[in-house]
Amino acid sequence: MRLEGWHLIIIIVLVLVLFAAPKLPGMARSLGQSMRIFKSEVREMKEEGPPEKNAADAEPVEGRTVNYPKSTGVESRTGDGTDVPPPTRA
Asked: For 53-78, how does the pLDDT look when each residue is reduced to its tens digit (9 = 90+)?
């Protein structure tokens, strides 16, 4: 005898009814509460309207270059010292 898909489904349902019968009402209740919460959240998101612009759609912001003071440490650097931040000290 060969087991097919619907045979397995019937066996699983019988096992659930026999061994998990006391827990089934609690599981169904929590599933119903979860579905209600999910539906209400989806409804609230639809009522809010279209989402606001995200950061990628925003206009570019002008910035300014910060010139760090020249380092007086022992490092030998070329240039005026404004192209790199000062060294960190431990």
From this structure: 665 666 777 777 777 677 665 555 55
Is the model's pTM score more than 0.85?
A: no
What pLDDT is recorded for position 30? 95
Length of the chain (residues): 90
Q: How far is CA 77 from the centre of its chain?
A: 44
Query: Of the candidates 51, 86, 46, which has an alpha carbon nearest to the alpha carbon of residue 66?
Result: 86
What tokens were used for 52? 């606001």
Mapped onto helix, strand or coil, the DSSP state of residue 5 is helix
- Contact present, 50 and 36 (Cβ < 8 Å): no
Alpha-carbon distance of 85 to 34, in angstroms, equals: 53
